[in-house]
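Is this the right way to post structure tokens for a design question? Let me know if I should format differently. Anyway, here goes:
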């Protein structure tokens, strides 16, 4: 496992995301025994970075991490998130997360989504209080575009932004990624396997469960969709097939080539990837050790360019009217 530093905090390049172990409508039933084994195997693989949120399973994800990781204290790095923005609510949310995590501090505490009603000044003031009290080590942001980053940087030296980024969703490359590089803000990629599409598990749009077909890749007619677009189903599955061919030619599993691709991108420090089984986390962990040649990177850029252009600059995977500005 390779490691990096974010604002002085040493983290594994592969971070275990824990949304998909909650067994919600997006991911389906998950046996807690499998979740426990997955977290333990992640530690065995050298993963020291775990990503959660108060919203994942209504606190269940944090509780499970607390049950398993609280004895390790400073040997693991925990990132959590809050959707709260009001001063007192942020303080309360953090304290509740700490109780569930059974920890004295959260290493990285994200503003999960930018709030359009509460001024950033109020949220940042709460985060600074938490930092001063030692309840968090640093504030970070998630789903922040150039406009919101420009505003919040006047208030706090943001060092980490978590965004959707994968071979099938390269929207941040248009504006947000260059801005983050220029301002020395590291990127943590979420949905790096595009909710399972880049595992090769699904051969057609019809095979994808409705919970995972809510993104703009799929038709607006899917039952759980909230966007107003026709989707890019044909382009998406044609691209997946092209990536599969590269995987076969190189002998690198599709999952690993997809994750390694992101880690080769300037500005990307961490890939946040979920796993529900032991085998999955083992395969994901190996991705940090894989070196892709410039030719392979260039080929992957080329075969995903059409889909990138089709989906455009909107960095919100789920809504036509982007919440990310």
């Amino acid at each position: 496992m390779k490691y990096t530093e974010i604002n002085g905090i040493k983290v594994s390049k592969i971070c275990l995301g824990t949304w998909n172990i909650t067994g919600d409508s997006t991911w389906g039933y998950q046996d807690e025994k499998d979740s426990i084994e997955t977290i333990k195997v992640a530690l065995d693989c050298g993963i020291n970075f775990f990503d959660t949120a108060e919203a994942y399973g209504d606190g269940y994800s944090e509780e499970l991490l607390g049950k398993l990781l609280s004895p390790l204290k400073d040997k693991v790095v925990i990132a959590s998130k809050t959707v709260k923005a009001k001063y007192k609510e942020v303080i309360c949310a953090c304290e509740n997360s700490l109780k569930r995590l059974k920890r004295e501090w959260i290493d990285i505490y994200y503003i999960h989504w930018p709030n359009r009603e509460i001024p950033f000044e109020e949220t940042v003031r709460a985060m600074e209080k938490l930092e001063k009290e030692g309840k968090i080590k640093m504030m970070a942001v998630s789903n922040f575009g150039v406009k919101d980053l420009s505003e919040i940087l006047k208030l706090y030296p943001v060092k980490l932004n978590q965004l959707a980024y994968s071979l099938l969703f390269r929207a941040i490359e248009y504006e947000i990624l260059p801005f983050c590089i220029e301002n020395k803000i590291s990127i943590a990629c979420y949905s790096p396997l595009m909710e399972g599409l880049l595992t090769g598990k699904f051969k057609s749009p019809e095979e994808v469960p409705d919970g995972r077909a809510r993104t703009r890749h799929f038709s607006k007619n899917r039952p759980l969709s909230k966007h107003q677009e026709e989707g890019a189903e044909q382009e998406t599955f044609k691209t997946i097939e092209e990536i599969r061919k590269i995987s076969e030619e190189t002998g690198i599993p599709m999952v690993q080539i997809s994750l390694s691709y992101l880690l080769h991108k300037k500005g990307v420090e961490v890939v946040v990837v979920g796993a529900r089984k032991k085998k999955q986390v083992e395969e994901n962990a190996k991705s940090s050790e894989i070196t892709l040649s410039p030719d392979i990177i260039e080929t992957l850029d080329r075969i995903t360019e059409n889909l990138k252009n089709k989906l455009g600059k909107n960095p919100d995977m789920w809504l036509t009217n982007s919440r990310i500005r």
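Format looks fine. Someone answered above. Worth noting: The two ends are 34 Å apart (CA to CA). The longest strand covers residues 136-142.
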